[in-house]
UniProtKB/TrEMBL annotation:
GO terms for cellular component: cell outer membrane. It is a multi-pass membrane protein. Residues 68-171 form the TonB-dependent receptor plug domain. The lineage of its organism: Bacteria, Pseudomonadati, Pseudomonadota, Alphaproteobacteria, Hyphomicrobiales. Residues 54-66 have a biased composition (Polar residues). Keywords: Cell outer membrane, Ion transport, Iron, Iron transport, Membrane, Receptor, Signal, TonB box, Transmembrane, Transmembrane beta strand, Transport. Residues 40-66 are annotated as: Disordered. One of its GO terms (biological process) is siderophore transport. Pfam families: Plug (PF07715), TonB_dep_Rec_b-barrel (PF00593). InterPro entries: Beta-barrel_TonB, Beta-barrel_TonB_sf, Plug_dom, Plug_dom_sf, TonB-dep_rcpt-like, TonB_sidphr_rcpt. PROSITE patterns: TONB_DEPENDENT_REC_3 (PS52016). It comes from Microvirga lupini. This is Iron complex outermembrane receptor protein. Belongs to the TonB-dependent receptor family. It is found in: Cell outer membrane.
Length: 694
């Protein structure tokens, strides 16, 4: 998938592009088992059911409450407990310990959550929110506040048979916090590196004593800097939610969010380039300097975003359940940058997504069927205005001389049958999508219509002792917003994958092990690459093969573990003759991670929690030509955390927890290059927090 000019060049802004800037199963609420200082929650039929670090079911994979052990697909889950222990500040932080997920391709960059799964970019088409695709435009990508999440589900491999337009590499489903039956109240203050100051709150419970109306209100205010003096990290975030449950058969949940955030329009450093005999830059990058590419006098990147939606469920009987999810979202950006002159991008997008499906439970002979039939409709519209002027003083807005706009409408119908016969589990699914695109840029109109069928077939076997091998095949399809190539809108990206794996839930323990091997192909993927110091869009075909291992556990002795390893061999099949067969830029063969968290259970240190983690990223190439001059070295990042429940000092302090989290303790801030442009990793960072729950 492409990364827009503003992500790689006009934001890194080392280059001017070729067109020179002219161109719920049952929707029940997540319920608190008890309000304790650990804050452990137990979901009862909710989007994610988990105990500590170990998830047992998630609706994301099948849109039904299917145990993860019985779901024949590679799945990872970031639970609420993991979020509380690691305190991730971005989506990239949250998924950095899951196998096959490559974060940090562009070094330190707080503006966008750009990452890949199994070597396939998922930035634009792989992020979903509460089971609905998160619509994005070239410079309008929704920012995530992790404090507003209950959990994250990562599906590796195609999921288009039920989700429609999505990445071949997989999807990341972000689960919003929902109202709880039991009262839950939390306030927290934070400080830390770069003059960080943050306050947050999370309040939930019933509105009335009959528990028919529940609420949740989550909010955050932050004023902070970053390691680049010209790049702030400020935001205001508020997320109200209400659940109305007039009966056990009917549930309506309203989910809302508003966020106003500001960071830097440029977050990169000037690169050195070799020159030809005439002094013109060539495509051979020497590497990044420590000279900041922007100017703090004209560098604000403000984004205002909002969403409002609902989830409705009605259970007619044990046989039939109807669900509908609908969300309207909008965002506006105002991005200032400086690189050889002043640049400005203003973009607004609007999107509506709706998914309606009927879940039916039938039995034919000895075979149980869970049948899902659905209709999915989404519409994205955006307007982007851009301007650049090298002659005006810094701080003066350039004229917005370039405009583009696009509307995409996607309609899909789908059916899925989950068959259960003795210990066998067979999943069959198919979907047909119709896409229309109306694109207008610089006075030229490009219209396009496409239709595509996608499907999935998977077979698994569940033993009595917790072992479940499986094999699956799936295809994918996704349009490319805001992309014109070869005189027209870019071809949709398509893909397919075959996967085999095994899952093991260790009997008598809250622990699970997962292993998967995969072979995927993706055609007509849109990417950006730098050629002769110019950022250009191209489409390529790639093939990615590899395998992944993952283990998670939360044990009664106070120990929690998350470990992963992935091997990914992502190769270019079609781009240019010089790159065919090469390793895809910035995709390492090897990645591994380990996180250990231990809480003292008794004695004078009871309530003391200590945690440490290491993330290893192997060698990769900094461009698709695989030239050693910008090869990325292997590196490891060390993270740590310590916390203490103050009630162990004095019972009157019950509910108070002090916690310190550190990322990249060894300050590994070396150069990382992608698509022939080089960045620097984020350095060491500390966050101290004091939380009170009651």
């Amino acid at each position: 998938m492409k990364l827009p000019f503003v992500l790689l060049a006009s934001t890194a802004l080392a280059f001017i592009p070729e067109k020179t800037l002219a161109q719920t199963s049952e929707q029940r609420v997540i319920q608190l088992e008890e309000v304790t200082v650990e804050g452990k929650r137990e979901g009862e039929g909710g989007p994610i059911t988990a105990s500590g670090y170990v998830a047992t079911s998630s609706r994301s994979a099948t849109k039904t409450d299917t145990p993860l052990l019985e779901t024949p697909q590679s799945i990872s889950t970031v639970t609420q407990q993991q979020i509380e222990d690691r305190k991730p500040q971005t989506l990239l932080d949250a998924v950095s310990y899951t196998p096959g997920t490559r974060v940090g391709n562009y070094g330190f960059d707080p503006r966008y959550d750009a990452f890949s799964i199994r070597g396939v970019d998922v930035t634009y088409t792989g992020v979903f929110r509460d089971g609905l695709r998160q619509v994005n435009s070239p410079n309008g990508l929704f920012r995530l506040e992790p404090y507003g999440l209950e959990g994250i589900t990562i599906l590796r491999g195609p999921a288009a048979s039920i989700y429609g337009a999505s990445s071949t590499g997989g999807i990341v489903d972000l689960i919003s916090k929902r109202p709880t039956f039991l009262p839950f109240r939390e306030v927290e203050i934070q400080t830390g590196s770069y003059d960080r100051l943050q306050g947050s709150f999370d309040l939930s419970g019933p509105v009335a004593s009959d528990n028919t109306l529940l609420y949740r209100l989550t909010g955050l205010v932050r004023h902070a800097g970053t390691e680049i003096a010209a790049v702030p990290d400020d935001r205001v975030f508020i997320a109200p939610a209400f659940t109305w449950r007039p009966s056990d058969a009917t549930t309506l949940t309203i989910l809302g969010e508003y966020m106003d955030s500001n960071t830097g329009g440029t977050a990169a450093y000037i690169n050195n380039y070799a020159t030809d005999a005439s002094g013109n830059p060539t495509s051979l990058s020497i590497g990044a300097t420590r000279v900041y590419a922007g100017d703090r006098r004209y560098n604000d990147f403000r984004q205002q975003q909002g969403r409002i939606g609902y989830e409705f469920e009605h259970r007619f009987s044990d046989m039939f359940t109807l669900r509908q999810r609908t969300r309207f979202s909008a965002l506006g950006t105002n991005q200032e940058y400086v690189y050889g002159g002043s640049g400005l991008t203003r973009e607004n997008n609007w999107g509506i997504v709706s998914d309606t499906h009927l879940e039916s439970h039938l039995r034919t002979g000895e075979i149980d069927h869970t049948i899902l039939t659905g209709l999915d409709i989404s519409r994205l519209s955006y307007i982007s205005k851009q301007g650049f002027d090298a002659t005006i003083p810094i701080g003066v807005d350039p004229a917005l001389s370039y405009r583009e706009e696009q509307t995409q409408t996607l309609t899909g119908i789908y059916i899925q049958d989950q068959l259960k016969w003795r210990k066998w589990r067979l999943t069959l699914g198919g979907r047909h999508d119709w896409l229309t695109s109306e694109y207008d840029t610089a006075g030229f109109e490009y219209d396009r219509s496409d239709a595509k069928f996608t499907g999935r077939a998977a077979l698994g076997y569940v033993t009595d002792f917790g072992l479940a091998p499986y094999v699956s095949y799936g295809t994918s399809f996704t349009p490319n917003p805001g992309t014109v190539l070869n005189g027209g809108v870019a071809e949709p990206t398509t893909g397919e994958q075959i996967e085999a794996g095994v899952k093991y839930d260790i009997p008598g323990m809250n622990a699970s092990l997962r292993a998967a091997i995969f072979d995927l192909r993706q055609d007509n993927a849109v990417i950006y690459q730098v050629v002769d110091a110019t950022n250009q869009q191209v489409q390529l075909d790639l093939r990615s093969r590899g395998f992944e291992l993952e283990g998670v556990a939360t044990l009664a002795e106070g120990l929690s573990v998350q470990a992963s390893y992935s091997y990914t061999d992502a190769r270019i099949l079609r781009l240019t003759p010089e790159t065919e067969g090469n390793q895809l830029t910035s995709v390492p063969y090897h990645m591994a991670s380990l996180w250990l968290d231990y809480t003292v259970q008794d004695g004078s240190a009871r309530g003391l929690g200590i945690a440490g983690g290491i993330r290893y990223v192997g060698e990769s190439f900094g461009d698709n030509l695989n030239r050693p001059v910008i090869e990325n070295d292997a590196r490891a990042y060390l993270d740590a955390a310590i916390r203490y429940d103050l009630e162990n000092i004095n019972p009157s302090l019950k509910g108070l927890r002090f916690q310190v989290n550190a990322t990249n303790l060894l300050d590994e801030d070396g150069q990382v290059c992608t698509s022939n442009y080089c960045y620097f990793d984020e350095g060491r960072k500390f966050i101290a927090s004091l939380r009170y729950r009651w």
